[in-house]
Amino acid sequence: MPNLANITVKKNDGLTDIIYTGMQPSAGDGSPAIWRQTTNAYPSCQPELRVIAKQAKGKMGRSVRGTYVYPQAITNSTTGVTSVLTTAYGDFTFVLDKQMSQTEINEAAAQFTNLLASALLKSCLNTGFSAN
Asked: What is residue 11's three-state secondary structure?
């Protein structure tokens, strides 16, 4: 079982690191582990990743579900109040069948996450259109 740790990723410029701080470890099946990018002082304005793992339906394996929220925070120049204007949202579900070998599960997880990090998928998300 993995231990909660901070996650470092590159910003859109491809050079600058941004850290998602491990805020809360999972308390067990169905309980989320939570990471936040804490550069904004207001928790409601911080991008957040939640990952929940539990027994898959039919008890044939494990299901891992992640949700990601990226709020657009704005500060009112008159009042100084910071609030969320809108958000970008993403999610994924990855189901592991217990009949697969650990080697195959490792390969599936690597290929899935590397596809999400690929330049083409990033472009699809940036533009809001699938590849044509």
From this structure: coil
